[in-house]
Each structure stands twice: as C-alpha cells, then as structure tokens.
Amino acid sequence: MSKDALLHVENLQAAYGESVVLFDISLTIHHGELATLLGRNGMGKTTTVRSVMGLVRSLGGTIRFRGESIAGQPPDRIGRLGVALVPEGRQIFPNLTVRENLVAFAANRNGSRNPWTLGKVYQFFPRLAERASNMGNQLSGGEQQMLAIGRALMTNPYLLILDEATEGLAPLIREEIWKCLAALKGQGQTILVIDKYVERLIGVADHHTIINRGRLAWQGTSAALSADRDLWHRHLGV
Q1: Residues 6 or more apart whose Cβ sits within 8 Å of residue 59
Q2: What is the pTM of this model?
Q3: 168: Cβ contacts below 8 Å, ≥ 6 apart
Q4: CA nearest 201: which of 21, 6, 39, 24?
Q5: Alpha carbon separation from 43 to 26, 64, 194 (Å, rounded)
C-alpha cells in the first residue's frame, strides 16, 4: 500500500445475504486524484462503493481510509471520517428546501481552512441559490443532482464518491456536471466516479478500474484506456 493513498481496497469480497457478489476487488486512490469505477450494469460497481461506505458487509480483504481500517465500521462513522457519497438516485429530502438539504449535515470533516459553506455552494451552483426556498421534490433532475453534490460538499469530505453521476440527465446538464467535477479536481478534491460516459471520463480522470461480474477486469490510466477500444467493447458495451 502506498503511503500517500487516501483509499486502499485490497482483495475485497462482499455478499448480499448468502450470495457472494464481489471477488478480490482491489483499487487505490491517492489524494487529489479523480478515479473511476467502470463496467456494465450489474457488474459490482455500486456494491464496491456500498462496501466502502459500510452499507454492504465485506467477507474478506481490506478497506483502508487514510491509513485506518474501515471494513466493518458503521456507515455513520465512515461518513464522519470524511467519505461523502452522492448515491444513485440522489436521495435528497423531498420535504426539505434546497437550503435545508444543504445545511442538514454541514461539517468540516477534513479540517479545511477554506471549507465549503452555504454561500460557497451557491456560488459553485448558482441555480441552487435561485431555488433556495424550493422543496427538494420541486427540482428538475439536474438540479437534484447539483443539490446532492452540494450536500456532500457541505460535509467537506476527504473523498467524494458519485454513483451514476449523470444517469438520466439531459446532455447539456451532463456537461455541467462534468465541468463541476473537473473544477473540483482542480481545487484538489479527491473523487471516485461511477458513470457510463467513457469518452467524457477519459478527459477528466487520472485512472480507471473496470469490474466484470464482480471481479477486477482491468486497471490503468486514461491514456491506456483511450488507446484500447477493444477493451471498451469487451467490458463497457460501447
């Protein structure tokens, strides 16, 4: 394990009930990197993330965050250590306003001297400032995703994880999200992204992990992935 690794997963095995769904998954993310988890639907990407977050029990292997073993830890403690998840489906609170969604879990978990605040999130996502008094269920899909990202940033995490970052969004809104992720990376935020838009991911990510049927299929840089289109067809369905 590299000494400067923020997240290090090695030989992870996980199960739902008696059904083992992950087999020896390994990945490492360093401070300031944007990494991806890729693969077709149902291959184990979300389960990997849910295992890191403590939402799925691991059967074996190690999960270390900032040098500390977090395998078997409850999700709330993992969150307090500085891991923030933007979940598939966004899961914002429909009966709270935009402002209330943002401030509900505000914290400075990474001890930043210039932490994310309500004003800073509004500056980053001006549309949320315009919708501050709207209820969560009154937002468009793109606005809900911005809110989910903003809510995660309000915890000031060391690691920001996005599961299906642009699923169901219109092309123009997807581009907004990609620009936001590139801007966050530029500010030094460490990010792990699950999404299917490989061409766009190659442009912003440092390295990629492909999962196939719960097993590690490939790992490498954006340059290596861009050069191997046959790999895309074998594992990504594009």
Answers
A1: 13, 14, 15, 20
A2: 0.95
A3: 141
A4: 39
A5: 15, 23, 12
